[in-house]
Write a structure and sequence with these properties.
This protein is 83% helix and 0% strand. By secondary structure, the chain is mostly helical. The chain has one domain. It is elongated. The termini are close together.
Length: 82
């Protein structure tokens, strides 16, 4: 495995790590989504549905990133075997 491949895998693994203070939340815009959820909750006096919606959206994005990381790692592993 070349140094470039190791660097890419390390960066992707670091970015898809579920970390609430990490780069994934910042890239998705987690702070903005929580702000809008609390705004909607303040208007309707029901905070749970917007927060559950944001949790589902966040989970789906993390699952997609993790799936893409697996495909990238598999492709890089296959290219190293050749």
């Amino acid at each position: 495995m070349s140094r470039f491949d190791s660097l890419i895998i390390g960066e992707v693994a670091r970015d898809t790590n579920v970390d609430y203070d990490g780069t994934t939340v910042q890239a998705i815009g987690g702070a903005e989504m929580l702000y809008y959820a609390s705004t909607i909750g303040g208007r309707t006096f029901d905070y749970m549905p917007p927060l559950i919606g944001i949790a589902v959206m966040y989970l789906s994005v993390v699952i997609i990133f993790t799936w893409l990381q697996g495909r990238l790692e598999r492709r890089l592993r296959e290219s190293d075997r050749r």
